Structure to design on (185 residues):
């Protein structure tokens, strides 16, 4: 197996680089690779590093904004949009309304079939009896789709994550929530 497969795939999803959000100071996060590990840790890449990459553990570091951008792309059918803090400035005081231009940053590296499988799986996480987040959405009048997660934070408790979108079938909003030291996803 190519040792750069997981690092390259993570970068195709926008990880390891800022999202490009205007007026936001961003961390690029960390996407470990064989070259990174040798330079930073002075160690060679081993199969276990690929396993950690595959589940987002170990030296992988991402931001909530990066994850919100990914889940928004999954929700909208595969397009990465540059995050903005302002949708538009309303008209007033003689000035016209000033909309902010939507900018496309790229596309998810997924076939339509794989994207559909991912969307269905995300819906099941929040709605099926065995879903890891189902209990959080009991009684909610709209269906949510999403993914729970856990980020290691030794020596303290792990961070609990949730990324998602709603409504699951006609998405209007994407979110990323992190509960620092809140335990598992």
């Amino acid at each position: 197996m190519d040792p750069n497969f997981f690092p390259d795939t993570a970068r195709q999803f926008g990880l390891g680089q800022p999202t490009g959000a205007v007026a936001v100071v961003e961390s690029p996060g960390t996407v470990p690779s064989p070259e990174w590990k040798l330079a930073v840790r002075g160690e060679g890449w081993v199969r276990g590093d690929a396993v950690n990459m595959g589940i987002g553990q170990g030296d992988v570091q991402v931001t909530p904004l990066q994850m919100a951008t990914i889940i928004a792309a999954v929700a909208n059918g595969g397009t990465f949009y540059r995050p903005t803090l302002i949708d538009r400035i309303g008209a007033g005081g003689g000035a016209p309304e000033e909309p902010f231009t939507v900018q496309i940053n790229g596309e998810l590296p997924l076939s339509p079939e794989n994207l559909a499988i991912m969307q269905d799986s995300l819906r099941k996480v929040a709605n099926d009896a065995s879903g890891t987040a189902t209990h959080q959405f009991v009684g909610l009048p709209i269906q949510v789709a999403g993914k729970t997660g856990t980020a290691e934070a030794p020596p303290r408790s792990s961070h609990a994550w949730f990324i998602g979108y709603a409504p699951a079938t006609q998405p209007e909003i994407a979110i990323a929530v992190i509960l620092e030291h809140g335990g598992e996803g």
